[in-house]
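Here is my example:
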Amino acid sequence: MKKSQRLQNSFLKYCVYTISLGGFLFGYDTGVINGALVFMSKPDQLNLSPTTQGIVSSSLVIGACLGALGSGRVADHLGRKQTLRLIAIIFTVATFLCAFSFNYWLVSLFRFILGVAVGGASSLSPMYLAEISPRLVRSHNVNQNAIFIVLGQLAAFTVNAILGSIWGNWHDIWRIMVLSAAVPSVALWIGSFKLISSPKWLIFKQKTYQARRVVNQLGFRDEQKFVDHSKQEVSQSQKVISWRDIFHNRFMRYLLFSGVLIGFIQQISGINTVMYYGTILLQKVGLGVDASLYANIFIGAVSVIASIYGTRLTERSNHHLMFVWGLLGNAVFLLILGLILKTSFFSTEMTNILVLLTLALFLANHQGIVSPITWLLLSEIFPQRIKGKLMSLATATTWITNFVISLVYPQLIAILGTAWIFFLFAIANGLSILFVKIFVDQKHLAAAYQQVAQSKQN
C-alpha cells in the first residue's frame, strides 16, 4: 500500500471520493454527447446538420466557461460543501430537461445550464480536495479528481455502447444515454450531506473553533500550524489586487500571458474533438455505429490507464520539458493519423485498426502528459496573492477555446475531410512547441514569480 494511502483515515477517503464525483460528472457529461449525437442527428429525431451538431455540443462548453468563472465567488459565499450540493442539483435537473427536449434549441439551452454545473465542478472539486487534504496526501487526493474525469468519460462511452448496440434501432435511445448522467449526479447530492466543510473556508469565515474540529477529523498532524498558516493566507488574500494593478506590472502581465497561452495550447491540441465527436469521426473513417461506440470504450480505457500512470510520472519530472515532449508526441501521432487516411496502402479493415491504435496512442500521450502537466503548470506559475484572478482567466481561456473548436469542428470536417483535420491539429501542436519555447521560458517564469511574490512585502 502506498504511503499516501496509509496516511488517510476512512472519513477523509469518503470525502475525497465523494468530492471527486464532481470530476466524474464533468467527464460523464462531456463524454456522453459522443455517442448520443449520432442518434440525435437522425431525421426522425433532431435532424442535426454539421452546424447544429456544433451548437448542441459546444453549448455545454460556453456554460462551463461561465461556471468556472463564477463558482469561486459562490463557493466563498456559500461554502464548498453547499456549492457542491447546488452543483449536483443543477446537474440532475438540467439532465432531465435535456433528455426530454424536443428540438435542438432546447437541448442546447439545457446543455448550456448543464455546462454551468460542469464548469463549477471543474473549478470547485480540485480546490475543495486541496483544502481538506493534509500536505503529505494533497497531490494524491487532487489527482483523484483528474482520474475521475477520465473514468466518467469511460463510463459514458461504455453506457453509450451498451445502449446503442442493444436498442440502436430505437433512435430515441439518445434520451436514455443523456438521462443516465442523472445517476452519478443524484449520488453526489446524497453523498454531499455527509461531507465536511473546508477548514480553510471556516477560517475565512472566522469560525476557528469549528475549523480546529474539522482538522482533527481529517487527520491533520499539526493543527495549530495549519490554523496559523491558513489565517496568514486569508490575511494576504484580503489585500485586493485589481486588474489595473496586474496590467500595470510587467511581471504580472507576463505570468498572465503565460497562463492564458498554456490554457490555449491545451485546447488547440485536438483532444476534445475526439472526446465529443469520436463516434462520428470513427464512422467517417469506415467503422459502423456499433463498432464506433465500442471503439470509444477502448479509447476511454486507454485514457484512464494513461492518466493514472501519467499523474505519477509528472509528479517527479521537469514539467516544462515534459510539456514540450507531450506536445511533440501529439504532433507525431496526429501526423501519422493523417498519413494513414491519405494513403491507400492498406485494406479498409487494416486502416480502421491502425486509425484506432494511433488514436489511442494520441489520447494516451495527451491524457498522460499534456493534460496533467497543463494544470500542474497553471498551479505553479501564479503566486498565491494573484492566483485566484489569473487562474480564473487561464481556466476561462481553456473553455472559450474549447467552445470555438467544438462549434466549428463538424463544419471543418465536412469541408476539409478527416485526414486534413488531423494534419491541421498536428500543425497546431507543432506551433505550440514554438510558442512554449519562445514565450513560456522557465527562467523568466521563475524570475517573474519571485518578483511578484516578494512585492507583497513592499
